[in-house]
Write a structure and sequence with these properties.
Elements (H helix, E strand, L loop, with lengths): L12 H52 L3 E6 L6 E5 L6 E4 L7 E7 L2 E2 L2 E4 L18 E7 L7 E5 L6 E5 L10
Antiparallel strand pairs: 1-2, 1-6, 2-3, 4-5, 4-7, 7-8, 8-9
Protein name: Prepilin-type N-terminal cleavage/methylation domain-containing protein
Keywords: Membrane, Transmembrane, Transmembrane helix
Length: about 180
């Protein structure tokens, strides 16, 4: 005699649809949080790059007894910092991974700035006009689409000390 075989092996179409809908709902809930997390991590990495470039320029200025000027390149989609010394070519260093749209700005006391210089002692070079402040010098990195608080590197004193900050602490009138 033959044994009866069951024709009900496997999942029904309704069970599969329920699982697919559940996965879709969970993904819709998690996706915005994940995207914000990725953007925050990219901003943190870009801020780290800015801090590293500035610290290296300051150290090079001390070691080689030269003034190093750090300039800001605000090309949309490809922000960068340039580091130059007197009578030498500038070295342009891109900020970010190129995958995310970043915006880089620099301010000194609510006034947009384009560069900062460190002298042979690693100190910030003052302006020829003593009424114009050179610190705090804020380089702010933010996402073009917003949604995530900006990150920044701030040169707080004429001696060249630097701190990192985020959110409201990155406003153009940083007060240490």
């Amino acid at each position: 005699m033959r044994a009866k075989t069951s024709a009900s092996a496997g999942f029904t179409i309704i069970e599969l649809l329920v699982v697919i809908i559940m996965i879709g709902v969970i993904s819709a809930i998690a996706a915005p949080g994940w995207l914000s997390f990725v953007t925050r991590q990219r901003l943190n990495a870009a801020r780290g790059e800015v801090l590293q470039i500035m610290t290296k320029a300051q150290t090079d200025a001390e070691q080689q007894s030269l003034t190093r000027t750090i300039g800001l390149v605000t090309t949309p989609g490809a922000p960068a910092l340039t580091v130059s010394a007197p009578s030498s070519t500038s070295l342009e260093q891109k900020i970010g991974d190129g995958k995310s749209a970043l915006k880089v700005e620099a301010f000194v006391n609510n006034v947009q700035a384009t560069s900062i210089a460190f002298n042979h002692k690693g100190q910030v070079v003052p302006n020829s006009d003593p009424t114009v402040a050179v610190v705090p010098f804020v380089i702010k990195v933010s996402a073009v689409d917003g949604g995530v608080p900006p990150r920044c590197v701030v040169v707080t004193t004429l001696l060249g000390s630097m701190v990192t900050a985020e959110g409201d602490d990155c406003d153009a009138s940083f007060d240490p």
